[in-house]
Amino acid sequence: MKLFLLSKEDIELSKDEVLALYQPDSFELVDNLLIFETNKDYSNRLAYTKKIYSLLKRGEGLDIAADIDFSRIIGNKSFRTKSKSKTKENELAKIIFSKLKDPKVELKNPEIIIEILETDGETIICKVETIISTDWRNRLPHKKPEMSPTSLNPRLAMAMINLAKNPKGVLCDPFCGTGGILVEGGLLGHKTIGFDIDEIVLRKAKINLDHYKLDSKLVHKSCLENNETFDFVVTDLPYGKNTKVTDSLDELYRNFFDKYYDLCSVMIIGLPSFIEYKKLVGKWVIEKEYEVYLHKNLSKKILILKKD
């Protein structure tokens, strides 16, 4: 049994990202712990998960540790215990000591970490399997060779890609800009293609992709002129706030949603929450939507669109 420690920044988005990749038959959500049986490993793709654990025992109090075969789990490897309570951390360490022939404690770089989690009055003892990388922080827009102030946060871009439930398919970003989504898609192992009407912006996208040693097909034309099909679309729609721009964008959105209904089976769309999107998506069915806070002037809606 595996436990996924979800980011509390957005538990619903965090949960759905994991479920989209692992697709378990059933699951349990306890606070920000997602629990289910799996042998799959998508830990290198996850954006909104902090840690993955193997469940050792759950119940009331630390007495449950007496039933755990720590000699099998730890063997001759170095270990440490971890808990929000220093007292309980030390208590668990004593129990483990009593079960090992030659216990090797290593506080800084242990080979194995046994952690105590407590939620809803329940004690959960588990082994840390993976601490999820936060390398996406190194790809924040201002850290790229070419940046755009409207570029999507790479963490959110990763999650949007994962929500498509297609870890190997061809990804299209019809409004690719400086290539933020294409970069994340490429790093996750997808073949990618991006469209944009701005040639200068596409050059910047190429520079960013080259920086991460990624290859992507970049097309200098409107995505509405495309007839090629894709496995899925992930994009952050362009937007403006003045009335003239908004009216022309509404028409662009309608045409885009109509056109791509015949070109892919699922779309993950980011757009500002002030846009009245329900009247624009056409035949697409909104399977799920999320609201992601960006800053005091802007929240973003993330839509999962499927065919009826």
The top level CATH class name of the largest domain: Alpha Beta
Shape: elongated
Spatial gap, N to C terminus: 35 Å
Low-confidence parts lasting 5 or more residues at pLDDT below 50?
A: none
Order of helices and strands: EHEEEHEHEEEHEHEHEEHEEE
Q: What is the strand content?
A: 25-35%
CATH topology of the largest domain: Rossmann fold
CATH homologous superfamily assignment of the largest domain: Vaccinia Virus protein VP39
Domain tally: 2
Mean pLDDT: 94
- Count of helix runs: 7
Major β-sheet strand ordering: 2-3-1-4-8-7-5-6
Task: Bin the helical content.
Answer: 25-40%
Major beta-sheet overview:
8 strands, mixed
Query: What is the structural class?
Result: alpha/beta
CATH structural architecture of the largest domain: 3-Layer(aba) Sandwich
Rg over C-alpha atoms, rounded to the nearest angstrom: 23 Å
The number of strands is: 15
Please explain how this structure is put together.
This protein has 308 residues and is an alpha/beta fold. The chain has 2 domains: 2-131, VC0802-like; 136-306, Rossmann fold. It is 26% helix and 30% strand. The chain is built from 7 helices and 15 strands. The chain has helices at 11-22, 70-74, 86-99, 154-163, 180-187, 199-211, 243-260, and strands at residues 2-6, 28-30, 33-36, 49-59, 78-82, 104-105, 112-119, 122-131, 171-173, 192-196, 217-220, 232-236, 266-272, 285-295, 298-306. Strands 2-3-1-4-8-7-5-6 form an 8-stranded mixed sheet. Helix 1 packs across helix 4 (154-163) and helix 4 (154-163) crosses helix 5 (180-187). The longest helix is centred in the C-terminal third of the chain and has 18 residues, at 243-260. It is elongated, with a radius of gyration of 23 Å. The mean pLDDT is 94.
